[in-house]
Amino acid sequence: MPNMLVVGSVAYDTVDTPSGKNENQLGGSATYFSVASSYLTDVAVVAVVGGDFDPGDRSMLSDRGIDTSGLAQTDGNTFRWSGSYREDLNSAVTLETQLNVFADFAPELGDSHRSLPYLFLANIDPNLQASVLSQMSARPKMVACDTMNLWIDIARPALVSLIAQVDVLMINEAEALQLTERDGVAAAATSLLENGPSAVVIKRGEYGAVVFHRDFTFAVPAYPLVSVVDPTGAGDSFAGGFLGYLSSVDDTGNDAIRRAAVVGSVMASFAVESYGMDRLRSLSASDIDARFNAFVELTRFHPLGGGQGLPVRPQFGN
Ligand code: AMP
User: Fold this and answer.
1) How far is the CA of 175 from the centre of ligand 1 (A)?
2) Would residue 46 count as lying in a domain?
3) Which of 65, 140, 245, 269 reaches 20 to 30 Å from 3, CA-CA?
4) Helix or strand run (H / E) with residue 316
């Protein structure tokens, strides 16, 4: 029985990165999210694919224990996205978006999905995200959402009203600035927190992520990889690690949220090591533990003991 639901895109992506071009790789926001979270929790996907969807890709998801009963298949083509990271590895330039079967998708949640306690509204049309949220029979314990510049450009009112209803907003730095018209992450997050969510997670590519929560601010670095092959899916994999962890321990407290941000960074670091999902889908428990422990080491420092302050020279007073 799943305990988390995700709605978002399932796609074939064509990406151009400094390592070269790769065509028609399995992608999509719901796909990266569900593959990353499947290491930690039971997740169900709501999305649509076309007649061209490879049955092997569906089996890859279901073989991992992902519930694909909400992955509809209709006539037409699967969503396609193509993007380039040639200019900047931290943010994709979208070359083409073909909504295809998503253009007319109106998901109807099954009974077993309506009452799941954790819900992720992955990047897709905010009207679709809102439709899924409105079909939940009880308010989930935690609702999180993601979005991107396309929806800020063409569906801003629907997006703003959705954000008012979620607990956690996950958003890229550039998109947070665009949405709020502020010029720094802290100012953007403060403005977003005034509009509903109790936490805003700002993703900053190779500079990591910052959780702006009503009660605290927590920053986690990105793992310093020597080679990033394909940044596609980093944000969704971060979200998959973050919510996968919270749903598996069934804890939405502040300490759990801090640890979840580290688990998110662990999953994102694997996602970018290869094209598409090649690395992310082939991890072992010891790979994940080793990377988590590397983050512990990366961020470890001792506070000053015994109420001591820094050795500031006395001329500066107390
Ligand atoms: P990210 O985690 O932000 O790198 O997301 C990458 C994924 O988002 C790709 O696999 C794309 O298929 C998907 N994507 C790109 N544009 C859109 C869009 N407008 N709506 C939904 N998904 C998208």
Assistant:
1) 13
2) yes
3) 269
4) none
Atom 5, ligand 1: residue with shortest CA distance:
233
Domain that holds residue 124: 4-293
- Number of folded domains that form the chain: 1
The structure tokens 């509204």 sit at 121
Q: Which residues of 234-270 are buried (b: 16+ CB within 10 A; e: fewer)?
A: bbbbbbbbbbbbbbbeeebeeeebebbbbbbbbbbbb
- 62, part of any domain: yes
pLDDT at 2: 84
Phi-psi region of 224 (alpha: psi -120 to 50; beta: other; left: phi over 0): beta
pLDDT, position 90:
87
Asked if residue 318 has pLDDT above 90, the reply is no
pLDDT in tens, 261-291: 999 999 999 999 999 999 999 999 999 999 9
CATH number of the domain that 281 lies in?
A: 3.40.1190.20
CB distance 11 to ligand 1 below 6 Å: yes
Is residue 307 in a domain? Answer: no
For residue 306, being part of any structural domain is answered with no
The bridge status of strand 142-146 relative to strand 67-73 is unpaired
Q: How far apart are CA 19 and CA 227, in angstroms?
A: 9
